[in-house]
Design goal:
Keywords: Carbohydrate metabolism, Isomerase. The protein has about 475 residues and is of the alpha/beta class. It has 15 helices and 18 strands. The protein has 2 domains: about 170 residues, Rossmann fold, CATH 3.40.50; about 290 residues, L-fucose Isomerase, Chain A, domain 2. Strand 4, helix 4 and strand 5 form a beta-alpha-beta unit. The protein is elongated, with a radius of gyration of 25 Å.
Length: about 475
Amino acid sequence: MADTPVSTLGVIIGNRDFFPDKLVAEARTELIGLFKQLNIRGIFLADADTKLGGVETFADAQKCAALFRQHRETIEGVLVVLPNFGDEKGVAETLKLAGLDVPVLVQAYPDDLNKLDVVNRRDAWCGKISVCNNLYQYGIKYTLTSKHVIRLNDPVFQKDLLDFTSVCKVVGGLKKVRIGAVGARPTAFNTVRYSEKILQRNGISVTTVDLSEILGNANKLTANDQVVKDKLEQIHAYTSVGKTPSEKLVQIAKLDVVLRAFMQENALDCTAIQCWTSLQQNYGCNVCTSMSMMSENMLPSACEVDVTGTLSMYALQLASGAPSALVDWNNNYADDESKCVLFHCGNWAKSFLPDISISTAPILGTSVGTENTYGALDGRTPAMPLTYGRISTDDCKGVIRAYVGEGALTDDELKTFGNRAVAQINNLQGLMHYICRNGFEHHVVMNASKTAGILKEAMENYLGWDTHVHE
């Protein structure tokens, strides 16, 4: 088990005076054991702080809220546990006073049919409705468990809890993400236009830099600089270089050094880079290898200055804990209406490319010369799970919107170049109609996970973005 917890959650254990107090103590003991098992850090009231560590009165709420405020910087979400009916005002007041503005998961215990007497009954089925009613009145957003009432040791609840920690990471990450836009949007790519102002209103900051500044700094470096030598070692350790000339590898390394410095100086979480066609014409190589290495190291990077594309990559990465890749919805797959080809010149994270190798970009090479496109990666993605999604700014309506869904990547035959994959998606034709009808981009993000539900809950419930789940 890793030393670093997968998440840090504040915990409110609800109580109500005319229900058995022992249920609170039992729930607290169970929860401590569960958090240890799942490597979750819990911020609890001590059992001496209030009656058995539960929250019932306004004074209890004040104590719990003060504890949460002490840990404001680390608490990612709050778990409400109802071992009995609970005091709905106590729960709501705690969250109001704490002012954390993080996701909230509400759990309630089921009753046993043979324990509905006065000394054993819980009535948490009813209590959960009352708690949620109060949270709704207070304007506090919350998440529900799969079953209305469920025990902590139920595997379904444990999945709910782990999914909730992922929801917390998506919400917390997207509220403060910092994106680097490197260069100008290629003029032929109106599809990747976006509203920087709408993103900023949602806490998403974009830092821009002219491509000439990046290329100018790269040209100041030489093959003898230690940072360039170190980067070349990293590239060789990352991928086969194929037939790439040594001087091109040096160019790729110099560009990577400068891009990483730009990210560090501006504390950026992800980047969107101009790659078509100024980079090839003015510098003489592709940036795909660097983008792949960044994405593999959980610093997503998208081509064609697709800022909301890299935002989508970051969101899917937060939901799954695994790298994402920006792809084109590119081709039909013969006559199979449930399959299509996903493609890009070659910047996907290594996780998607077991046969990864540095190559060239033949399509781009027809206009800029193939010798100027070294750095594009070649590789085929094998069968794996698939979550796909796209976040976009609807500038006409002044909102952020998204779609997500799940499918599978397959091992179906595919004879072509670049980074490529075959996707199988139920009702794919309906999905394409939705994308076209609603003006979404030709770029989509893929992730080797099943996290559409997590993304829907995070983006729609907590962030307020209209999110379509393709069924």
